[in-house]
Design a protein that fits this description.
single chain, alpha+beta, 7-stranded mixed β-sheet, 3-stranded antiparallel β-sheet, 3 helices, elongated
């Protein structure tokens, strides 16, 4: 009988007052491994940095600057759309305006914007005048666009000034001679003013010569050719 009482006493010594075992306590947060906390923080920071980089590199990029009052828009305009031809004759030799003048592209060759005055490769020496509103544009404005576009793309200066025509610099003895054919049946007429002031008009043909020699009449321009018949 005494032995049985001692066994019960021994069995009950591991229990509380109620006769139950004390609950097992869970580890507190302070017991978590420090390395796991550090790794979680670093991963969180990396995610934040990656999201910020994605937003930064995919933000809209500012387009080329407005030149002579002419911006570079993402789409071609159709509200006002007509064409004028410009021929550059250097010492008797017709020289084409550079293709894509006034058309900005990215590194992959995709068009990013069009200046209102630009040249498409399919229409040699033809200025496409495409603006959202009716306005008067001059040959000087086109060459301002051409010069800004050319230098921005690493092609050098292409300006129209007293001593420059496109990529050419006048040498001693050279002079600028200009002709304008309005398509009114009168043919090319000498223009004695500043060539920069020549107003661009539909199906007008402007010829700027660096002479000698004075090529008169200047080379004919064919608006009815296969490339230009739809203009």
């Amino acid at each position: 009988m005494a032995n049985r009482s001692r066994a019960k006493a021994a069995a009950g010594s591991g229990k509380g007052k109620s006769g139950r075992r004390p609950p097992v306590r869970a580890k507190s947060g302070s017991d978590l491994p420090l390395l796991a906390v550090v790794v979680a923080v670093i991963l969180g920071l990396l995610v934040i940095v990656m999201i910020g980089a994605i937003i930064y590199f995919n933000r809209p990029q500012p387009g080329p600057q407005t030149v002579a009052g002419i911006p570079c828009d993402h789409l071609e305009h159709s509200q006002v759309h007509y064409h004028a031809a410009v021929q550059i004759v250097y010492h008797g030799v017709l020289t084409n305006i550079r293709d894509n003048t006034g058309i900005q592209t990215d590194s992959a060759g995709n068009v990013t914007c069009y200046y209102w005055l630009h040249v498409h490769p399919a229409n040699k020496n033809v200025i496409h005048i495409e603006s959202p509103a009716n306005d008067t544009f001059t040959l000087g404005q086109f060459f301002d666009v051409s010069n800004a576009w050319s230098q921005a793309n690493g092609f050098g200066a292409q300006k129209l000034a007293a001593t420059h025509v496109a990529t050419f610099t006048l040498q001693p003895g050279d002079k600028i001679v200009a002709y304008v054919d309005l398509g009114d049946g009168k043919g090319p007429q000498p223009f004695t003013g500043d060539p920069r002031s020549i107003v661009l008009r539909s199906h007008e043909v402007i010829t700027i010569e660096i002479s000698p020699p004075d090529v008169n009449p200047p080379p004919a321009f064919d608006w009815k050719s296969a490339a230009n018949s739809g203009l």
